[in-house]
Design goal:
Elements lengths: L4 H39 L1 H14 L9 E3 L5 E3 H32 L1 H15 L6 H8 L3 H20 L1 H4 L4
Antiparallel strand pairs: 1-2
Helix pairs in contact: 1-6, 2-3, 3-4, 3-6, 4-6, 5-6
């Protein structure tokens, strides 16, 4: 029993369509993760900032000092490995702070709507005291839904800054 050329062509066409669909789904999932990660970073910004400030003050041990810490599951951590983790956290926060400054400059050049999005981002995620959508809307004299939309656009813009060209695909 042989398969006709027409049947092979149909099978190949269906297989290629399914393959393309699966690749597009994976790409969407990757992009969704980047947007999710951006939201998580912004949501935890205040806590990370406080942690970094406390870390800078408390970690003033000599460079050669090797204290060991035993975790609840009996694993040993050297102070050196903790310092490396803290250094990564500090570097990440410096990067985020720099990207917030870049976004601020960009928004100033783009006009009042972009500046409103930047200020919305600050009030919702960055400033010490978080404001609600209603408070932000009242501050800008806009509808609450506009404040939500502004924040969404600001988070997308921050994803582009955090992830570069990969973040650009979020908006396509």
């Amino acid at each position: 029993m042989s398969i006709a050329q027409e049947q092979i062509a149909v099978i190949a066409e269906v297989a290629i369509a399914k393959f393309n669909e699966l690749q597009q789904e994976e790409k969407t999932n990757r992009l969704d993760r980047r947007l999710f990660n951006t939201r998580i970073l912004l949501k935890n910004y205040r806590h990370l900032k406080v942690y970094c400030n406390e870390m800078k003050e408390s970690m003033n041990l000599e460079d050669g000092e090797q204290e060991e810490i035993i975790t609840p599951d009996k694993e040993y951590l050297t102070l050196e490995s903790i310092k490396r983790s803290e250094a990564r956290t500090l570097a990440m926060m410096r990067f985020i702070d720099n990207m917030i400054k870049v976004y601020e400059m960009d928004c100033k050049h783009l006009g009042s709507e972009a500046e409103r999005r930047y200020v919305t981002l600050l009030h919702f995620y960055i400033n010490d005291e978080r404001k609600s959508y209603a408070e932000i809307a009242k501050l800008h004299n806009v509808h609450e839904r506009t404040a939500q939309r502004d924040l969404k656009e600001a988070v997308h813009a921050m994803s582009v800054l955090f992830f570069g060209t990969d973040g650009l695909r979020l908006q396509l």
